[in-house]
Amino acid sequence: MRGAAGGANLLALRSHNTALVLDLLRTAGAGGISRLELAERTGLTPQAVSKITARLREDGLAAEAGRRASTGGKPRTVLRLVPEAGHALGVHLDRDELRAVLVDLDGAVVGERRSALDLGAGAEAVVEAVARAARELVADTLRPSEGAVGALGGAPGPSGGAPGRSEGASPSPGGTSGRSEGTPPSPDDTPHRPDGPPPPPDRAFAAVPGFLGVGVALPGPLDHVRGVLHRVTGFPEWDGFPLRDALARRLGVPVVVDKDTNAAALGLAVGGEGGSFAYLHLGTGLGAGLVIGGGVHRGARTGAGEFGHQVIQLDGPPCTCGARGCIEALCLAAVARGDLAGAARVLGAGAANLAGLLDIDLVLLGGRTVAAAPEAFVHGVGAVLDARARREGGHDGAVPVRLAPGGTRGVAEGAAQLLLAPLFGRGDV
Question: I want to staple 386 with a disulfide (CB 3.0 to 4.6 A). Which of 18, 164, 379, 398 is the partner?
């Protein structure tokens, strides 16, 4: 963390130190933590901790949580995070469903909205669906007063208009919807109404206390750094579309875009899953989120985790990506004919490949299809990994397989962490 002259970047250093303190306040929970403990655990001086906590209290991000007895002195004041001082929105765009969650600074879900979606309907329809869901969720959950901006800031401007109505259809696990013909999006165009200029930024978020922005997670491949989609499997018309910038202009707030599997893996890592693990997501498609050494592994071009398109049968059935014999095609075909044991074996073969390549500690399973039959998939994938471990010998045993916590909203919660994690110094996760 160095400036141009080689010295410490004081602004960045202050932010880093504040993030350290905020993260300890978050992990301490409602019981709180004393300033002395903060100094001991961060390595900061007591004076620095006092200045940081004073600013946090002034901004409404920290508050007293009572007093705690100390050895040989007066009771110490303990401080806690104020979760309601800030919020982030996480959006999961699946091929046939939109799920949005509003979370507080603690990552707790305070509101949720779910609606049907056709990812093939075109950029304008999808961007407007996100804007509508976000506006409704904020209005229904927080009912903010106009002009009230929280300690962490928020988009300036007046409150947005009245929310529209969401559809509440719930697609079946592993299913796909028919794609309507939409105008192929252009990388240079912001989605616009055909009969007028582009809609103005939505200002409904200006009244949300400490609104950090919107994290959006969807199937890849995509460029996480630039927020640009590539050839989303089954939806080639999205290739090159700048989704992050289009949504940021429409919503008037910061937007971060990532793959659904990476977002879920981030949420799991922040939530306490340590070490190195693979999150395998089986829903309308199949992908992987990889956490190596505690951090999300996105690869040199943010394309890591395209797990579903490993070819494991050279003469296998065609896949929507254009290849043949992909794990995704084989797995979803087995699900479609009701052969869950067969689907689990295919998924297990892919998981065994990952375990052999990356030497991971754990495999976590998630997604709508897994959620519909968790025991079948956990048992089936585990059996393949057990067989691999027996063949190889050794004393460590098989890589364990578990159902990922968070259920079917794990991706949306992870998308919100794309905004929250950097606030707590977890941006490298």
Answer: 398
What distances in angstroms separate CA 226 from CA 91, 187, 223, 229, 245, one per listed residue?
Answer: 18, 12, 6, 9, 9
pLDDT at 218 over 60: yes
Is the Cβ–Cβ distance between 325 and 316 less than 8 Å?
yes
327 token code pair: 């794990």
Instruction: Please give the model's pTM, rounded to 2 decimal places.
Output: 0.84
- Angle among Cα 208, 210, 215 to the nearest 5 degrees reads 85
- Retrieve residue 238's tokens: 């999205």
pLDDT, position 426: 85
Q: Please name which of 349, 348, 367 lies closest in space to residue 174, comparing C-alpha atoms.
A: 367
List the domains of the chain with CATH numbers.
10-81 (1.10.10.10), 86-264 (3.30.420.40), 267-409 (3.30.420.40)
* Paired tokens of 274: 């340590």
- Alpha-carbon distance 171 to 411, whole Å? 16
Contact 389, 398 (CB under 8 A): yes
Three-state SS letters, 386-411: HHHHHHHCCCCCCCCEEECCCHHHHH
Q: Burial, 59: exposed, middle or buried (Cβ in 10 Å; 0-12, 13-18, 19+)? A: middle
DSSP state of 298: -
